[in-house]
Amino acid sequence: MSYAIIGLGKIGTAIAHAFAQQGIEVIVAGRRPVDALAAQIGASLVPKPIEDAVKADVVILAVPFAVHSDIGRMADNWQGKIVIDATNAFGVPPEELDGLPSTAAVAKAFPGAKVVKAFNHVAAATLAQGPTTPAGSRRVVFVSSDDDAASASVAALAERLGFAPIELGKIGEGGLLVQARGRTWGRLIFQDLVKFD
């Protein structure tokens, strides 16, 4: 399975560090050159243009919400791919999303993809501290999708990265807890929860 992170802002960089800590190869791409930052983070990061990154089996979307549709247009076919939506649509009026949860709106830009919401609820600075806390607990990552197999696959990836995944169910059900609606944050956003093994 191949992985790509599109966007090396604060969230994308934090996720890239988690990949590097586990030595998992991941393509990284951004709207600006990412080669120097990738080299600084770790040897398992492979910088490539976005046009190549969208060919990965699992694409982590860590760009501003407003540009998600631009990324969606960069692949001819999203069929069978998993797109992890790590964006937040805070401040976007619900009517601009046709009343849909933001991840369901994102899914429209990636036809054929299995879209999973994950890695968006923890503040970037907290996520950058890594999956393990000084107390030895694991940081929780919430996962939601309308595709159960894709949700399980992303939960397994989060586990492999060292996080403690918790599946919330469907995007329009439990997944609403980690999505912004207008100028209101979902109830679990910014909650730095941990699991003690």
From TrEMBL:
A Pfam family matched in the record: F420_oxidored
Domain Pyrroline-5-carboxylate reductase catalytic N-terminal: 3-88
Molecular function terms, GO-annotated: oxidoreductase activity
Residue runs in coiled coils: none
Keyword Membrane: no
Domain of life: Bacteria
UniProt entry keywords in alphabetical sequence: Oxidoreductase
Bilayer-crossing regions: none
Record's protein name: Pyrroline-5-carboxylate reductase catalytic N-terminal domain-containing protein
Taxonomy of the source species: Bacteria, Pseudomonadati, Pseudomonadota, Betaproteobacteria, Burkholderiales
